[in-house]
Amino acid sequence: MGVRTIGVRGDFGGVTRAGWRLRGCGADYDIVHAWGVGAMVAATLAGFGRVVFTPAEFPSSRVIKWLLAAMAYREIWVACPTATMQRALVGRGVAVERCEVVRPGVDFGRVKKGRDAELRGRLGFNDDQQVLLGVGESTRGADHRCLTWAGTILNVLDGKTRLLLWGRGREAEGARRFAAQLGQPELVTLAEEKLGRRVEFEELLGVADVGVVSASGPVATLPVAVAMAGGVPLVATVTAEVSELLEDRHTALMTAAGAPRLLAQRIRTLREDPELGRGLADRARSEAYEYFAMSGFIEGAVGLYEGVMGEAVVGARVGQASLRESR
User: Fold this and answer.
1) Burial 306-316 (b: 16+ CB within 10 A, else e)
2) How many Cβ atoms from other residues are within 10 Å of residue 256's Cβ?
């Protein structure tokens, strides 16, 4: 299997260049798996025969229209990380036989349970502070602005709340500026900027006291699954995708989306009841093992590849390329 990345840090400088440089490589691979819209566009421009597309985030109306157009003259299958995404795509015209659910797989070997005091210190947090971890990238759908507002409310009350964001996503810097506008310039820490290096999201779980999914719109599924596996108490908002993964008072404390005060109340409830938090974290971790095991992801992906090829590929040598967007 070959793996190629596109983007500033990737093997190719951009989508158009990747599509141009990959032209003529179609005979080398039976299947190309494109991860993200940019990779999908590059694979289409390159003229690959069979393409499996896994959206990195919930496709917009514009992306769905483009996908439908591309599927009219390319053999494209969509691997949806959630049933919510599958229903949305099928409802917009994507053929159900070309659209399957393949849940993401968590590499549990990279998820370490327990506090990482050394990393916590390098990020500037002391033992007395309560660190909220915004789950996933700071996108519009993730609504880390709402989380920043909730963190501000809590910090005004106790003076010990800090918000840790991964530092990826277009809205990350905006969340920090918003905190400053609210009179809390020290509230938000961007992990990759603070450490001066690329950070895997799994690393941050050992720093957090509470993980927060503050989504008001579509978000990537894998970071939520990783947070579940990390054994960190979770607070989350109710959206179609998040509610497919988490259940109120079973694996997380949940509240309405876009309501900073209610979000702050749920976080405070966890702080005041450590036993509740431990129970939620344990059940979330158990469900992550059940639903997001890497073996399940591999089984689902291989099953999809079998359908694409029209023949069994287990045990056979099938040429496959993985095309990803570089971050």
Assistant:
1) eebeeeebeee
2) 11
Strands (E), 217-283: 234-237, 253-255
**pTM score > 0.70 for this model?**
yes
**The total number of residues written for the chain in this structure:** 327
* CB 36, CB 56: distance < 8 Å: yes
The residues, ordered by sequence, that sit 6+ positions from 20 with a Cβ below 8 Å of its Cβ are 45, 46
- The ranges of the chain with pLDDT < 50 are 1, 7-8, 10, 20, 312-319, 321, 326-327
Place of tokens 């599927």: 71
DSSP 48: -
In single-letter form, the type of residue at position 142 comes to A
Whether residue 212 contacts residue 236, with contact meaning beta carbons closer than 8 Å, is answered with yes
* Tokens representing residue 110 in the block: 């990279």
Close Cβ partners of 225 (under 8 Å, ≥ 6 residues apart):
103, 104, 106, 245, 288, 291, 292
> d(Cα 15, Cα 21) in Å, to the nearest integer?
10
Could you give all domains of the chain from N- to C-terminal order, each with its CATH number?
A: 2-105+293-325 (no CATH), 108-291 (3.40.50.2000)
Task: Give 199-202's long-range contacts (Cβ < 8 A, gap of 24+).
Answer: 199/166, 199/167, 200/110, 201/136, 201/166, 201/226, 202/107, 202/110, 202/111, 202/112, 202/226, 202/230
Structural contact between residues 241 and 221, judged by C-beta atoms closer than 8 angstroms: yes
